[in-house]
Amino acid sequence: MKRISILALAAAAALSLTLSGCGLAQDSGEVGQKDGDVTTLTVGTSVTPHGDLFRFIDENLAADAGLKIEVKEFTDYSLPNRALSDGELDANYFQHLPYLESEIKGQGYKLHHFTPGVHLEPFALYSKKIDDIADLPDGATIGINNDPANQGRALKLLADNGIISLGDADPITATIHDVAENPKNLEFIEAEAASLARTLDDTDASVINGNNALNAGLSSKEDGVLVESPEDNPYANILVVREGTQDDPEIQKLHELTQSQEVKDFIEKTWPKGEVIPAS
Description:
Blueprint: H1 2-27, E1 33-35, E2 38-45, H2 47-60, E3 67-73, H3 80-85, E4 91-96, H4 97-107, E5 111-113, E6 119-120, E7 124-126, E8 141-145, H5 148-160, E9 187-191, E10 205-208, H6 210-215, H7 220-223, E11 226-227, E12 237-242, H8 249-258, H9 261-270, E13 277-278
C-alpha cells in the first residue's frame, strides 16, 4: 500500500507539473520567436486583402521595428480564432468585431481586439442577371452568408436599400428569420462565405464579402448592384490577439504598424477603386 501511495503521489505531482506548465504556456503572455534583436510573429490572415497587407508590413515596415512577420493564410473562417486560442498564432487578422463577438460567445475564446480597425471591405450585391436593383424579379433567389455575423450584415444592405425590412431586429445579429417584410418574396440561399461567388450562376443575385469578391475578380464599385456605405460602418477588420498578450511590446509594435500612414497609402494605392478602404 505504501508503494502504491508513493507512486500515486509521484504521478499526481507529475500531472500537476505538466498542467501547470501548460497553464504557464497559455497565460504567460509571451509571444513570437526571438532571434537576437528580431522577433518573428506568426499572423493568421485571410488570403486577400489581409495576407497582402501583412506581407507589405513584413517586407517594408517590420524590420525597422525589430519584427519579422510570418503570414499563415486561411480560407475557412472557423480556423484562425481556434489557432490563435491554441497558441499556433501570435495574432490574427481576418475578421470584424461582430464576427469576433459571435465567436467568443459561441466558442468561449479569450481574445483581445485592437481599435481602431485597419481596413474595410464594403459588402456588395452582385448578379450575372441584372444590372439595376429595380430589375430584381419577384421570387428572386438571393445568395447570403450562413454565419450569423455576416448574415446580418448582408440583410442590412438589403434593408438599407428598401428591398426588405428587418423591423425591430438588431441588424448586427439578424438572420433570415428576422425578415419582417419581404415584398418581392425573395428566397434566401445560405452558403459559406468563400463559396458565395460560385453561387452567381445559380442565383438571381448574391451578397458577397469584400475579400471573397476580390478573390473572384469582382469589384464592388464596378460590379456591385448595391454597395454598403462606409459611414459609421461597424465592420472594419481588426487585429486580434490572445488575452494577456495585448501589452507585449512586440504586439504593441505590430498594432502600431497596422495604423501607420504607410499602410493606409498601400491600401489606397493597391485598391484604388475602393474595394478596400482604410478604416480610419
